[in-house]
Each structure stands twice: as C-alpha cells, then as structure tokens.
Q: What sequence folds into this?
C-alpha cells in the first residue's frame, strides 16, 4: 500500500478527541482507479481550508484496484459537512457503479499519526494484516501527535 504524506487541515486538535474516517474504494476495472485517485488528490488540495479537518492521508494499492483516504476530523459534524460538500458529492456520483466502497469511523482520544495509520491499516488489510506487517507496513510507525 502506498500512502501520501500527512496533509494538515486547519483544525488543530492537541489534547482533544478526534474522529477518524477511513474509506476504501475498490474499482471494478483497472482503468477507473487512476481517475478515482486523481479525484482524491484534487480534494486533498482543499484540505487546509476544510472546516473541521485536522489532517489526512491518501492511500492506494494499485495491484488490488483499491484506493482511499484516512481522514482525521474535529468531530462528526465536520465529517458530515465534508460528505455533503458539492465537490465530494459530484465525485461520488461520477464514480457510483464503478466500484465498491466501504468505510469505518472511530473516535481517538489521544491520537498519534502512527497509531491512526496502524489501526486504519488493520481495517484496510482485513485478512492480509499479517502479510502486510511482514512486508513492512508497520515499520516506521510514528508517535508524532496530530498537528502541522
């Protein structure tokens, strides 16, 4: 799995609980994966100005036709605002029917970047967790707090 660098949002959350949202899109056809990932990169550009966004990573697993995001939000209301944001809605409509999507959210009370990525990786890996760990997915896990 390839992961982008951390992209900080404008909502700092030192010492505050946050909401983590992990999404996974699995394309039905390989030709759609680059377009979906590019759409995510375009949304990522707006992250610093996104209300309630603490930060995020994009990820892709091209050989598995999968891509998605790990986003950290100030709270559930901020996530709901993003889900209803017109550019996000347009992307979801454009790629509806071109793959399967699944997601999970959870609250973190003392989040670190490494801890968030580790838990997200376990969700995304499912039965592949042991193989991914052996391949180095967990290597270099950061204990850096979620901030800029």
A:
């Amino acid at each position: 799995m390839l992961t982008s660098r951390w992209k900080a949002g404008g909502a700092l959350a030192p010492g505050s609980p946050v909401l983590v949202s992990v999404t996974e899109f699995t394309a039905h056809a390989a030709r759609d994966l680059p377009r979906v990932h590019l759409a995510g990169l375009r949304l990522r550009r707006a992250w610093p100005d996104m209300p309630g966004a603490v930060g995020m990573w994009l990820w892709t697993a091209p050989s598995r036709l999968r891509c998605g995001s790990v986003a950290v939000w100030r709270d559930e209301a901020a996530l709901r605002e993003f889900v209803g944001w017109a550019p996000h809605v347009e992307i979801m409509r454009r790629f509806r029917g071109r793959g399967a999507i699944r997601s999970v959210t959870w609250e973190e009370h003392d989040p670190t970047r490494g801890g968030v990525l580790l838990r997200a990786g376990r969700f995304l890996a499912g039965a592949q967790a042991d193989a991914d760990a052996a391949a180095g997915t967990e290597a270099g896990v950061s204990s850096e707090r979620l901030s800029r």
